[in-house]
Amino acid sequence: MTVTIRPMADADAPAVVAMVQGLARDTATGVIPKLTPQSLIGNRDLIDVTIAEDREGMLGACLTLLTYSTWRDARGLYVVDLFIDGRARNRGIGLKLLRAAARRGRAKGARFIKLEVYHTNDGAARFYERLGFGRHDEDRLFILEDEKMTALLEDRD
Fold this sequence. Notes:
alpha+beta; globular
């Protein structure tokens, strides 16, 4: 069966959102993504979405952002989400999606790729390690959520 890799069209947004929700469900994060088709389309200036499909429908999606590393003095590509539908796994589609997204990033000057893998997602960790991604356990992820960000912005000095 022929697989097509292409940029997301607006009409694809609901299926991409469903895939992101599937990723959260499959990794048992306990988090329900707030992403909506409207917000995905509305943030196309920030996020680039590459999809894989065959004649039966969407098989996977790779969502990326451009980033910048001061330590590398280089633009990079940050993989926000990469998801392959269960019926399409182990067919090389994840690699095809990542390559296409990387080509799109390279065209914008990206010289490295950075991503995170949820600690329960061992299959994804093995996939990225096979591709040559190095694990950096010395980095710690910190997130300041909306309410606490609002509190930070308050001038209490």
